[in-house]
Fold this protein.
Amino acid sequence: MDLIRQLGVLAFGSRLRRLTERLSKDVSRSFRDQGIGFEVRWFPVFYLLTLESEVSITGIASALQYTHPAINQIAGEMDRAGLIVSTRDKNDERRRLLSLSKKGQSLITDLKPLWADIADATKEILSMSGIDFVAAIDKVEEALDQRQLYDRIVSRIKIRQYDAIEIVEYESSLKDHFRELNYEWLKKYYRIEPADEKVLGDPEGNIISNGGAVVFARIDGRIIGTGALIKHDDQTYEIAKMAVTERMQRRQAGKKLTRALLDRALDSGAVRIFLETSPQMTPAISLYEKLGFEISEGFITPRYKRESITMVYKFEK
């Protein structure tokens, strides 16, 4: 059984690594057979130094698209093998310039014909794939330049997490969740003020009966977050008492709750929608900005002793 082969694209990186190790092993064996003391991993740096008389560590890293530490490690190995020399840049003492030593230069004569043999043998193998394998790799790298694999993975994770969250309307049986979820973050960062206790203790009387709404985020049968829409007048609504339990934060619950409340406010004819949040809550502020809110000073008179900022939803014309 070849598990990596069976896993297909899920093990794509592992399969490329295995292929690289297999090819490198054979090339290293060829060097040894010819009595050449040379490591496969040195090749890109060594070859670059055959083209340039002196190159800085930063220049090599940029040319090869390697990390600075990786180049330092390779350069250290090549230095110990006596293949390169290192000097200080006359124009910048902080920069180290690498060049081939006399031993390294003399090795070029033995390496060049072997490189040609390696290239021909590699072309033979790649031709058996029936495609231009190198061109295909170029396309893969171009796709990664446009958008990294990490970003593509994170995007899919967010969509999956967002879709897994169910928005639930207020029921009296959920009253305790509304209070406890808000108490959780208030106790962690501030203290519970009388204005908080009033709203959290009676959401039906202080929010819902006045034309507002309270909603919850539920996943796998568990309530993990909540938020409220408070009506101030026929055109002004406030998104308030947003809270997601700490262990479930950064899983799109806040985003889905905010969108649900925005939809309700807009459907009710809102012209102005605002919210107050803590300047410490940078992830929340970032989320609100992405959804169309902007920080607005002086929009309302502060109602809490804790530090807060006001954000207003930006209506599109």
